[in-house]
Write a structure and sequence with these properties.
- The protein has 298 residues and is α/β, with parallel strands linked by helices.
- The chain folds into 3 domains: 4-88, Arc Repressor Mutant, subunit A (Orthogonal Bundle); 93-158 and 270-297, Periplasmic binding protein-like II (D-Maltodextrin-Binding Protein, domain 2); 159-269, 3-Layer(aba) Sandwich (D-Maltodextrin-Binding Protein, domain 2), CATH 3.40.190.
- The chain is 47% helix and 21% strand.
- The model has no long low-confidence stretch (mean pLDDT 89).
């Protein structure tokens, strides 16, 4: 008999486009994702994806299967979450959506002390906004505001997107170039360094490059790792550059394990918002979580 988790994993791979992205979305290991996919492919008897580099491209049969199972799986997930809430009368369960890095840097350290149950979801911001509007999520942390009249957004902090590097990067040489204001030479110097990026998400790098050089970067990062916290840990090895939100590496910069290389010609900042429904039964629990975020990020 088919395991329904195989379908859930298949849907996650289809939507994220990578095994790593599916693993992050489901909060399971990448080998577990691979096992689910191979088991499902063996069960249905045909390939569901073509593996092109790091991307998972759905086959025609994969597309047909996704169209058949996506909506039923989503409904089952909704039932699962809503039923869990309705049956836990004494201890509320709060569902919160955010990116993986934000969770690790902020809320993770407090989870064991929370006086209520917690479900953390990772995903793309449009998807989280939709789940918040439908009542699947109770609170989201997002740099983007939605347009639903049922959702209110509260700005609570900001993140600056900065260029950082390992402690062995020759920052003095780069600073000399900055004084010349020769944009072409500055860009060339940066391109000759080793770069880190994350799977499927280059938005910060693209926006930083466009803001400072007027176009998207015409190179690919040398090393692609699962998430931005992985980048910070890799940079502690001494070399390499990356564009990341400053709050992820503030303590590492202060300790000297990572260098702040450049803030850019113009500061690149995102406002961070709490998003929640205007009508909720969990106002007390939501305010508790908001307080923890303010404590860490302000």
């Amino acid at each position: 008999m088919v395991n329904l988790e195989w379908y859930r994993t298949f849907k996650a791979i289809y939507k994220t486009g990578t095994l790593t992205g599916a693993a992050d979305a489901l909060f399971i290991s990448q080998p577990g994702v691979s096992l689910h996919l191979s088991s499902l492919e063996a069960y249905v008897g045909y390939k569901l994806f073509d593996r092109t580099g790091r991307k998972m491209i759905p086959t025609e049969r994969g597309k047909v299967l996704f169209n058949a199972v996506a909506e039923p799986i989503t409904k089952l997930e909704d039932v699962e979450k809503n039923f869990q809430k309705s049956t836990e009368k004494h201890t509320p369960t709060i569902s919160v959506g955010m990116c993986f890095e934000t969770f690790q840097t902020t809320l993770e350290q407090y989870v064991s002390s929370l006086p209520f149950n917690l479900i953390i979801s990772f995903g793309e911001y449009p998807e989280m906004l939709d789940q918040l509007d439908k009542g699947i999520l109770d609170l989201i942390i997002t740099p983007k505001k939605g347009s639903s009249p049922n959702i209110e957004h509260e700005a609570f902090s900001s993140e600056q997107i900065v260029l950082v590097g390992g402690k062995d990067v020759d920052k003095a040489a780069f600073n000399k170039l900055l004084k010349t204001k020769d944009i072409e030479q500055i860009e060339e110097w940066l391109k000759n360094e080793k770069w880190y990026g994350t799977t499927g998400d280059m938005e910060h790098l693209f926006q930083f490059w466009i803001l400072n050089f007027g176009h998207k970067p015409n190179f690919r990062p040398n090393y692609i790792v699962p998430n931005m916290n992985s980048i910070i840990r890799c940079l502690k090895g001494g070399t390499g550059l990356a564009v990341v939100p400053d709050f992820l590496c503030r303590s590492d910069i202060e300790s000297g394990e990572v260098q702040l290389i450049w803030e850019g010609k113009k500061k690149f900042e995102n406002t961070l918002y709490f998003g929640c429904r205007k009508k909720t039964n969990y106002q007390t629990e939501i305010e508790h979580i908001k307080g923890l975020f303010r404590k860490v990020m302000n």
